[in-house]
Structures are given as structure tokens and as C-alpha cells.
């Protein structure tokens, strides 16, 4: 499995049109290889949209990019709302049920970028960390996905390249359609 992690900078006046455009991504539910997508706004940078999508493989994602991607972008009109975008892929194999919950169902999520890893921490509605919902994913490209330059702390204290707290937008969630059982 592969996690596609998107950070999009949106002009303040375009936040509402971007949010509305997310509804068109429901089409992903029919795309072969797609599993789940969620997203929301970065608490620390309110004009940054975060979208995370789980795919069966990088190959299934590439096929989507060659096929349905552009038609969804065009109908959503989101391209006009985005100032800049950063996309990274992380190895999500295997992702346990607990980790899937932390990533896709927890009301709030803390993302920390450290080198070539993405630390994911599920949070409760009150913003409290749940240690049982913490895990790390490795960047598939084997390189750091920097957003903000950082310096290594001489005392070996972790220096985060970026820190994102995101409250999930329920209407940004998309789940794969499950085929009806044969014979029904």
C-alpha cells in the first residue's frame, strides 16, 4: 500500500471553492486500486489543505493519473484555487487496522515530518494524543520531503521539518466502493 500525502496552499478567498471542489473527488470510490481518502485544514497554517489517500500500489495510482485524474481536477475547478502544491508518497505496507483508524478515523491528526519519515499521531476531539495511535511511514522516494528548512539540534533533540495538526473534514472522506456479493 502507498499513502499519497498532499499539501496545497490555498488563497484565503479560495478556501470555500476548494472545499466545495472536494465533493468531486468522490469519483475516486470507483477507481481500481483506490482505498480511502481524507483531509482537512492545517491548524497551524489555516490556508493549507491536507489530503491523504491510500492506494493499493504506486502502479494503481499511476494508472489513475493517466486516466481519471485530469477529468476530476477539471470538473472540481480546484486548480484555480491552488497557489502551490506538494505531493509525496509514503510506504504504507502493511498498515494495521489500528493505524488505518489513526489515519482515517481519528477526529484530529498530528503529522510530523522527520527526515524521510512521516510520523502520524491520532488525536481525540479534545486534541489529546493517543499513544496507541502513533506510527511512522517512510518516503518511497527515499528523500526528505522538506517544507521548512531546519537545523539539526546539537543535543540530538528531534528537529521537525514540518508539524501539521489537522481536524478532519468529514465531507472530504472518500471510501472505495465494495463490489456487491455475487448472486445478490
Automatic annotation (TrEMBL):
DUF4937 domain mapped to chain residues: 3-90
Domain of life: Bacteria
Record-given protein name: DUF4937 domain-containing protein
Gene source species: Eiseniibacteriota bacterium
Amino acid at each position: 500500500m502507498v499513502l499519497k500525502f498532499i499539501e496545497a496552499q490555498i488563497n484565503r478567498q479560495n478556501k470555500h471553492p476548494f472545499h466545495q471542489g472536494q465533493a468531486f473527488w468522490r469519483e475516486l470510490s470507483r477507481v481500481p486500486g483506490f482505498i480511502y481518502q481524507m483531509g482537512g485544514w492545517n491548524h497551524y497554517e489555516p490556508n493549507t489543505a491536507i489530503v491523504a489517500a491510500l492506494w493499493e500500489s504506486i502502479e494503481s495510482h499511476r494508472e489513475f493519473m493517466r486516466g481519471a485524474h485530469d477529468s476530476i481536477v477539471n470538473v472540481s475547478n480546484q486548480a484555480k484555487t491552488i497557489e502551490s502544491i506538494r505531493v509525496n508518497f509514503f510506504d504504507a505496507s502493511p498498515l494495521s487496522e489500528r493505524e488505518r483508524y489513526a489515519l482515517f478515523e481519528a477526529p484530529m491528526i498530528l503529522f510530523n515530518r522527520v527526515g524521510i519519515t512521516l510520523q502520524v499521531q491520532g488525536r481525540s476531539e479534545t486534541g489529546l494524543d493517543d499513544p496507541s495511535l502513533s506510527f511512522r511511514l517512510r518516503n518511497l522516494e527515499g528523500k526528505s520531503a522538506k517544507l521548512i528548512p531546519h537545523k539539526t539540534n546539537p543535543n540530538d533533540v528531534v528537529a521537525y521539518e514540518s508539524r501539521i495538526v489537522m481536524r478532519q473534514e468529514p465531507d472530504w472522506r472518500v471510501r472505495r466502493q465494495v463490489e456487491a456479493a455475487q448472486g445478490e
